[in-house]
Amino acid sequence: PKPPRPFTEYHIFSQLERNYILQNPSNNNTDDKKEVDTTITFTDIDPNASARPPKYRNLILPNQWHSKGSRPKCRSHRKNHGKITFVEMTKLISKRWREADSITKCYCRDLSVRELKRYREEMKDY
Prior knowledge:
By secondary structure, this protein is mostly helical. It contains 3 helices and no strands. α1 packs across α2 (86-98) and α1 crosses α3. The model is unreliable at 30-37 (pLDDT under 50).
């Protein structure tokens, strides 16, 4: 099969920011700010957390979270987290992208460039 196109730097940022919003109780719009999401379980956790910008180092992310097609596509049963609506989340993420510091943008750019190189190598073999 044809390799999937890689994520852009904005999409990588949105993945980071989405997980940051969902995993940090201080960002929830609910009254019970003491509740932390402990249901996150991955069999293979990202070993490169220390390379992330400081804001995102404590996030629990699967290995290769920045690679398209690295996670299973089974989405038949999607449970809504109920912490923030999709519209609110996308507005918040786009606002934070505009305000993001250069370290975060460089990190996302580096990942997207690395994934683009990997994609081009896979396309040569395709």
